[in-house]
Design brief:
Helix content is 71%, strand content 0%. By secondary structure, it is mainly alpha-helical. The chain binds NG,NG-dimethyl-L-arginine. One of its GO terms (molecular function) is transmembrane transporter activity.
């Protein structure tokens, strides 16, 4: 099993998150200031995603990554490999994502004199509190919805990337850097646009349980969200998700492709 895809996925995920960090920091109002938590989570999850994707694609096509542009795989194989990568990544992402969402939705101001203390003091404190109050399964709250969100959308992610690269690249050539940047950025947007409706629901389910249970499952959460806020609820955060997705995924794919070419 080629391991370089995992390493390239880790490094490219780390580089992508440096660009995405300002967006995440805005969203979490400073609670998420340090880089260590995102590096540990996003880069690791990206490594799993790209590692699983490449190895599944290799198993389906028997074409090594060095020959992927000269012997391109069929889109159905790309989609299946992407979906499987998304499914596995969702499982690894679940606890990290829950911590991020809990910190993000904390409304108490940070350590201001006279104001109520925030529930969580940082990622580690958030994790230990969840373990204490909700048990180990609490860390996987909303993980089913996360899997439903990531399985098809990561298939879409890799298919859009492949399609755009092939469209703008002459036959039998490797895509150039500009093509990889644009295709990576657009693939990121395509995946986030399709992921946003379930992302909204996932976040609500991850917040559920903090002050007692509100929703009886995914469907109930969807129905009551639409009843209370209308169908536009599914597009909450679409603009910021897309604005973040372009630079993050442009850099992620560029560094991933270059690392793999450099390793031969
Ligand atoms: C849930 N979706 C849409 C995705 N995970 N899409 C792939 C992009 C991954 C990248 N690390 C990012 O955070 O944009």
């Amino acid at each position: 099993m080629p391991a370089e895809e995992f390493v390239a996925g880790w490094v490219s995920g780390a580089l992508g998150l440096v660009l995405g960090h300002p967006f995440d920091t805005i969203k979490v109002l400073g609670f998420f200031k340090g880089m260590s938590f995102p590096i540990a989570s996003i880069a690791l999850v990206n490594s799993v995603l790209f590692g699983v994707y490449s190895n599944v694609l290799l198993a389906l096509t028997t074409t090594p990554h060095q020959e992927r542009w000269t012997h391109p795989p069929v889109y159905m194989d790309v989609f299946i490999a992407g979906c499987l990568g998304g499914f596995v990544q969702a499982y690894c992402l679940a606890p990290f994502d829950l911590i991020k969402v809990r910190l993000q939705n904390q409304t108490e101001p940070r350590a201001q004199l006279g104001s109520p203390r925030p529930r969580y003091r940082g990622p580690l404190h958030c994790m230990t509190s969840i373990l204490q109050n909700e048990g180990p399964q609490g860390l996987f709250r909303g993980s089913g919805t996360l899997m439903l969100r990531d399985t098809p959308t990561l298939g879409i992610y890799f298919v859009s990337y492949e399609w755009l690269c092939r469209y703008y690249t002459p036959k039998d050539q490797n895509p150039n850097s500009a093509t990889v940047l644009v295709a990576g950025g657009c693939a990121g947007i395509a995946s986030w646009v399709t992921a946003t409706p379930l992302d909204v629901i996932k976040c609500r389910m991850q917040m559920d349980g903090l002050k007692g249970r509100v929703y009886h499952g995914l469907l109930d959460c969807m129905v009551s969200s639409v009843q209370q806020e209308g169908p536009q609820v599914f597009f909450r955060g679409l603009i910021i998700n897309s604005a973040r997705a372009f630079p993050v995924n442009a850099v992620t794919f560029l560094s991933y492709e270059y690392l793999l070419r450099w390793w031969g």
